[in-house]
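Run Tyrosine--tRNA ligase through structure prediction, thanks.
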Amino acid sequence: MTDIFEELQWRGMVAQTTDETALREALASGPLTVYCGFDPTAPSLHFGNLVQLVLLRRLQRAGHHVLCLVGGSTGLIGDPRPSAERALKTPEQTAEWVSRIEEQVQPFLDFDGSNPARMVNNLDWTRGITALDFLRDIGKHFRVNTMIKKDAVAARLNSEHGISYTEFSYQVLQGLDYLHLFREFGCTLQTGAVDQWGNILAGADLIRSTEGAAVHVLTTPLLTDSSGRKYGKSEGNAVWLDAKMFSPWAFYQFWINVDDAEVVTLLKVLTDLDREQIAVLEQQVRDEPFRRTAQRTLAELVTTLVHGADATRSAQAAAEALFAKGDVSALDERTLQDATAELPGGVVDTGSTIVDALVQTGVADSRNAARRLIDEGGISLNNVKVTTAEATLTEADYLHGRVALIKRGRKHLVAARRS
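Sure, done. The structure for Tyrosine--tRNA ligase is below.
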């Protein structure tokens, strides 16, 4: 596709625009300078931010100039949540998270090529503005009756908590960002999730008021889980991009377990697969959903994008070892720990019989039941069939000295953990 706007529409990445016809024409005649902001209100970006990074990546590949803004100043304030006031972070904590997010963004965009992306921090242009200048030069252009209509602000005004002036001023600060980037870099397009529409529009209105210029806004739909909740830290179901906060194994498994009803949408949004490739996977979802080919493709591509090919191969090897007949002894310690962390099981001491281990991990209700399972050939230890009830767990059976894997049949997997 040569029309980037058409591609974004096909991929389901366009929720709202200020003027679709004008934006389509501007993108086609470009290049435009576009920005998206990421606030350091947590030490890592998450699923929702990934959608925006992929959007910026597509626009950069289409030849447009990308500004990636990390909110050193807006992060000190915090975008108002509909429920309650945010706990303000210290300047030191915010600065640390700014650095982490700047580093996290690097792999998604090209900062060195012929059309390099640029990283900017809004603290650089707000720290020197006095309160009087801010109120006179920026605040003058905002109308309170318009500001209180924003969804999050309206929700807070109607709650018992109310809203502080600090959070109420957030949209003014974000509007200032767009104005500054318009003046400094000729930026004429801001992107964000659809729930940021009001904040983003504030910047476009500020540019129109101060500069007499029309600029563009594009928002993406909110992607939700099977219960209809958006993925995000405020919802308590965040899929973090930081490997220390959400391991590559857990990340890979998250995509493997995506519902059939959601997988094609996610393939369009998050991968570079074309129409024909996605049509084939969509057909497989309809005809052979039990194979989960679309989910495995999604998991491989997105995990590689975020964590790299090595981490993806480790996650795939762990899945094969745990749920098929792969070599569990070949798993590295971190992947093994992540993959078994939430498995049911129990503490089983070295030297215990396999019969006792089955009872202690909950696989069997009694020693007699455990013996029957072994005699029937239904028990394996580290993917090796157990042939005698007299077998005992040795030190060598505990992978990396931590855990032995006991499987009943094909799917019932438990962890015998060393005390």
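The chain has a mean pLDDT of 91.
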